[in-house]
Amino acid sequence: MVQLQEIVDEHFQEGQAGPEEDDADYTDTDSEISEESEYDPTDETFGERLYALRDIVPPQTRGYISNTISTAGNTVRSVLSFGGKTLWVISSSALLLGIPWALAWAEEQQVLEMEKEMKMREMGGDLLTAGTGAQEGSSTAQQFGTALGPETKAAL
């Protein structure tokens, strides 16, 4: 059978080199802090309190949170930048292409209205001049009805 015997190393038997402990200098630091402290928690801001709690969260978790917030910030910045550039392109295109087109379209509508008015004037002139050579027994409403077509009725 095997027996174990403990051999003590001489190095561990010696005392450590250093200052001698003086028990007179030893004081209870907890009681001194609680009695003599001038700390006022009402002077501390919410941000300072959160900053003091940073050591509670492990470094890996702090790194993950920091990276996530940084990535989200970069994403928001990129989206806003792209949105601003897109808005610039759309608005400048509208100004350069849309306004001239709208003005040309409005001018074309005005020309069509003028042509329509001219046709109506010609028609009215023909009706007025047609009254002299037309049958004397026919009324003006009948003349308008025949000039404008059978489906048109005179308004009273």
UniProtKB/TrEMBL annotation:
Q: Compositionally biased, Acidic residues: which spans?
A: 19-45
Keywords of the record, alphabetical order, are: Membrane, Mitochondrion, Mitochondrion outer membrane, Protein transport, Receptor, Translocation, Transmembrane, Transmembrane helix, Transport
Gene Ontology cellular component terms for the protein in this record:
mitochondrial outer membrane
Which GO BP annotation is one of this protein's? intracellular protein transport
State whether keyword Transmembrane helix applies. yes
Localization per Swiss-Prot or TrEMBL: Mitochondrion outer membrane
User: How does this chain sit within the bilayer?
Assistant: Single-pass membrane protein
Family in the record: Belongs to the Tom22 family.
UniProt protein name: Mitochondrial import receptor subunit Tom22
Give the species this sequence originates from. Answer: Xylaria grammica
Classification from the root reads: Eukaryota, Fungi, Dikarya, Ascomycota, Pezizomycotina
